[in-house]
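Quick entry between incubations.
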Amino acid sequence: MNSTVKYALALLALAAAVAPIYWLVTISIKRDIDQFAVPPLWIHFQPTVRHYVESFRGGNLARSLWNSTFVASLSTLLAMLLGVPAAYGLERLRWPRDWSRKIGFWILSTRMLPPIATIVPLFLMLRRAGLLNSRPGLILVYTAFNLPFVVWMMQGFFREIPRELEEAAMMDGDSRLGTLMRVVLPVAKPGLAATVVFCLIVAWNEFLFALILTQTTTSTTLPVAIASRVTQYEIRWGAMSAAGIVAMIPVLVFAGLAQRYLVRGMSLGAVKG
Amino acid sequence: MIRTLRRSWPGVPWVVPTVVLLLALTIYPLVYSVKVSFTGPAGFSLANYARLLQDRLFLQAMAQTLLYTVVALAIEFALGFALALLVDSLGRGRAFVRAGLLAPMLLPPVVVAIIWRLIYNPQFGVLNGTLRNLGIHTSALTWASGERGALASVILVDVWEWTPFLFLLLSAGLQALPQEPLEAARMDGASPWQVFRDIVLPLLKPVMTLVILLRTMDLLRIFDQIFILTQGGPGFATETVSLYIYRTAFRFFNFGYASAMSFLALGLTIVFARSLMRLMRVSR
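Done. Structure below.
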């Protein structure tokens, strides 16, 4: 294939991937009368920020934006606090026979469960515990959801660190925990950062758990708040698109930051990238 | 006792918090829902499972989920592979193309659904707007809101959203291929097609199997985009297993029956998960 054809095909694919997103952006900054114009207006229209102002007025969207931020950050923090030591313990401490591998695979296997299989009992459990429609309940669920990912990813990163580093520190009388904190984690910083970013993205994007476990406007997250405005009868396209853009931007920024580790994160580390 | 535990199992305290949380929030719920699924009005009962076999709607949701999975996977794989080969062979601008192609899979599913509502809307959507501008009659083109085209339309959304995932992993696989066998074959006068078929494909097999399995597991549980785009409708045209379970549990509050259905779905997923794990063990 000659290279002109190649570039033409690549541009076509690029357009197919990006044009729909660009269209969302334009709808979010178009006046109502321009939104449905035929032929569709791709470039020549008068931009407005009205829809952004409108979608934040009333406070529900701002509230769910804060809920999303709060839930995503705290659940990520918790998953890291629990998962990083577990990964280190499985990777570097002595285990009889192949127990470290067995436990590692069991942990990973909990991630393979389809959410719909555990959502009914989780709903009943949280309801009984009084944690339904509350952020702590959702934080717990997201922590459990991200935990296997943290353990699996961090095990991979720890494996790449030469053992000699730790042995030297322990020779100097450092405890295991001290070695992890002072020697291993600083070296594993890029891996830690990438893992944090992926947990944040997953929690930020998650829909099904939030839909069922947080049904009140005060407790729900951004995706559910947006979806609940998308009714079939009365759609305020501009406001809906503006809210979508707000939900989308943090994810694209985060993904950009973790670009180097995208392959590893998306394949649970099975394909080294 | 504690002494021997500390000596031969020094790693235990490190993993206990993780294991406890996962037991409480994934394993216990599973066991709990087994109980719920076997409970009738008068104690132990198989009624939920008996009903499963006669539920036409469940079977239809199952059939549609499988159809959705197979068709979406086939298209995404073919397109993703073609794109990986194409972009891999580009010179300048490769990084730029790559970054742009990856965008759809990173978006929150709710945003994907909004985007496609803006596109598909029969009266005001940009798709019919463009077609009308080209002089095409669009009154019959209802996309996701017509019974006939709805399933194909939601599959197209999936293709748009997830082809980038296959592209990403397959191009990573291509870049990680060892160069020596490729060069050796070329030196021996093998044609590009022969090199591809006899060397690239076999070497890429682990990655291909992995992405297929990861994707299949995700497709079988598809929920978000369809829920926001069509709610399973019109009628029952885009109902999937996850949507039907959701409806049974949280619209009709039949938790027992929903649990029974989710076990069947789980069984299906486990079959795939097991092969996936075996594969990951091999590839390490």
